[in-house]
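Whiteboard transcription, Tuesday session. T.W. wrote the structure tokens on the left side:
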């Protein structure tokens, strides 16, 4: 009986059971579950020969030290600790352990790792080039699609998975908004803006019908009529501007809004952040811009001498 219980509580069995819990109970998407699995397997390897339920606080702290020594960024280390906290909370609730080894451990500082964004001029240049290609005569279905994707990524600050998961029925172009499914399948309504609405209307009228080889609900399709994947969207953005990425467009959307006076709660809602602390990082970026403008234009701000 003891041997059977130990077998059920072996590291691989526990990880499989936890992943099933995340999928069914928490509604996490496959990519999120894959990330949890990688983090737990890495920690299990660090623990050997100990089993995951036998981990101590000292072992978890040692794991974080190990990550730091091997050059893992604080943001990645914080994500791994968050994964372990979720895992041990699940074990504790299931009464498989008596003490959570992640309690009172300080989260690696992530505020220093500021998200990278593009300047407004860079984004405008990329979107203008995309619009010129789409407005050529005759308009190409792929060019119309690519313009709509770029406009939507910047207008709504979407994650790549949110963009590729959009269906035609999720759009309400008359109202200038879209229904987006974020992490954990949480839904939110995002405004689109005039430029994005116009690009989407042209794509739906003249681009998507030429790409849809068979009936499908997905909004963005490949040349063969298949739903676009994440990797392809990254490739498209890189082709449009080597310095850009889908994530940079998301960060640019938030940064530019804060720089122009948007409040953090509005930006939090737009991006789908569960915690306002995640959104607060954009105040650091906007503050840097504010300081630069102050130094350039305030009569008493410029330094005397070299």
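and on the right, the sequence the group agreed on:
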């Amino acid at each position: 009986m003891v041997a059977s219980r130990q077998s059920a509580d072996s590291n691989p069995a526990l990880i499989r059971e936890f992943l099933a819990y995340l999928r069914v109970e928490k509604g996490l998407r496959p990519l999120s579950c894959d990330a949890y699995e990688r983090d737990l397997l890495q920690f299990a390897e660090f623990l050997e020969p100990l089993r995951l339920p036998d981990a101590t606080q000292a072992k978890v702290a040692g794991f974080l030290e190990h990550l730091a020594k091997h050059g893992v960024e604080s943001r990645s280390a914080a994500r791994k600790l968050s994964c372990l906290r979720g895992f041990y909370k699940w074990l504790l609730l299931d009464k498989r352990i008596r003490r959570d080894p992640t309690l009172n451990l300080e989260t690696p500082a992530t505020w220093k790792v500021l998200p990278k964004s593009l300047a407004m001029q860079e984004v405008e240049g990329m979107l203008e080039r995309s619009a010129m290609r789409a407005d050529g005569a005759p308009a190409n279905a792929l060019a119309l699609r690519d313009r709509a994707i770029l406009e939507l990524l910047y207008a709504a600050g979407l994650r790549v998975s949110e963009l590729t998961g959009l269906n035609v029925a999720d759009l309400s172009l008359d109202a200038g908004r879209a229904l987006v499914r974020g992490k954990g399948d949480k839904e939110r309504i995002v405004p689109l803006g005039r430029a994005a609405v116009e690009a989407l209307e042209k794509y739906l009228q003249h681009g998507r019908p030429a790409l849809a080889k068979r009936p499908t609900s997905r909004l963005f399709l490949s040349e063969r009529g298949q739903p676009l994947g994440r990797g392809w969207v990254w490739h498209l953005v890189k082709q449009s501007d080597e310095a850009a990425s889908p994530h940079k467009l998301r960060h640019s959307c938030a940064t530019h809004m804060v720089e122009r006076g948007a409040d953090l709660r509005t930006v939090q809602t737009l991006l789908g952040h569960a915690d306002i602390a995640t959104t607060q990082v954009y105040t650091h970026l906007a503050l840097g811009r504010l300081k630069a403008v102050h130094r350039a234009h305030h009569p008493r701000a410029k330094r005397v001498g070299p």
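Someone added at the bottom: The chain has 14 helices and three strands.
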